[in-house]
Amino acid sequence: MVITAMIWGSTFVAQSMGMEHIGPFLYTGLRFFLGCLVVLPLVLLARPQAVPGGSRFSKSMLTGSILLGLVLTLGINLQQIGLMFTTVTNSGFITGLYVILVPIFGLFIGMRSGIGTWGGATIALIGMLLLSVNEDYRVASGDWLQLLGAACWAVHVLLVGALASRFDPIRVAFMQFLVCALISLALAAALEEIVWESILLAGPAILYGGLLAVGIGFTLQVVAQKDAITSHAAIILSLEAVFAALAAWFILGETLTPRGFLGCAMMLAGMLVAQLVPLYSGRRRRAPVQEEPAGHH
Predict the structure, then answer these.
(1) Alpha-carbon distance 244 to 114, whole Å?
(2) Measuring CA to CA, which of 53, 91, 150, 276 is 20 to 30 A from 245?
(3) Residue 223 predicted with pLDDT over 70
(4) Distance in angstroms (rounded) separating the CA atoms of residues 133 and 126
């Protein structure tokens, strides 16, 4: 999961560099199409009897996966367009807020959130304001887009949780990638100029974003989360924001003001508080019974 967070964090740099040559929809469409090709062998190799939910592609599985793909398409394209109007560092940290939004959104479907979640959310919100609000007390338009994207990722995580327990996660992933690729490529054809030479120039960024972030990153996440407590997974994956900031500094030369550093530190602290406090209090409640701690969603 640490490797997954590292891949996803550094992909913000690839996303930013890819748009130096091609438009956001074309970049997203091409990298998710590439991700489909990476996952396709896993879809074809899986034994039918090993697939939860009966048939390979049932009607309910397809419906859920298409809905998941629509949320993914909205989230990733908000993130991609937002990168045109904000820094990679801001994008990584604000996107990471989905870790806190998941239990907050979960309230609407009957999930309970404790004081740790609300405390963490408050700390992270203050951190986001320190990171994003400029001297004129305005938030950059790109940061607003990243925040909307984070809301989409929170919904996406909740949907994945509902679908992965009922259907084969590799097939669900393949279908959502395909939906995202087709919609993004259609938007690119309608709204953007498509030049073959520009695609070739963006090739390394497309390969990194498609092969590593979509194909390998997702597969590592699925393999890791089979045996991981959900809370632990969320804590480790929230390090994506730190890796995004490090990659932006090392590759793009982005720097932060002291206020920006404080904002990033508070956002990361808020993410960790929101995950660790419920985990710790849950362990204390279960301690006398000696049960295996179950992850909260």
Answers:
(1) 29
(2) 276
(3) no
(4) 10
Residue 48 burial by Cβ neighbours in a 10 Å radius (0-12, 13-18, 19+)? exposed
CA 104 from chain centre, in angstroms, equals 17
100-121 pLDDT, tens digit per residue, is 777 777 777 776 667 777 787 7
Question: What's the pLDDT band for 169 if we cut at 50, 70, 90?
Answer: confident
Establish how many alpha carbons lie within 13 A of residue 78's alpha carbon, considering only the half-sphere containing its beta carbon: 21
Instruction: Give CA–CA dist 98/152, Å, rounded.
Output: 8
Return the closest-CA partner of residue 223 out of 233, 234, 211, 208.
Answer: 233
Which amino acid, 142? G
Please name every residue paired with 139 in a beta bridge, in sequence order, or none if there are none: 133
- What is the rounded CA–CA span in Å between residue 272 and residue 230? 13
pTM: 0.79
DSSP 8-class letter at 287: G
* Distance, CA of 169 to CA of 65 (rounded, Å): 10
Torsions phi, psi of 296, nearest 5? -90, 150
Do the Cβ atoms of 162 and 56 come closer than 8 Å?
no
Using a 10 angstrom Cβ sphere, with 0-12 exposed, 13-18 middle and 19 or more buried, the burial of residue 295 is: middle
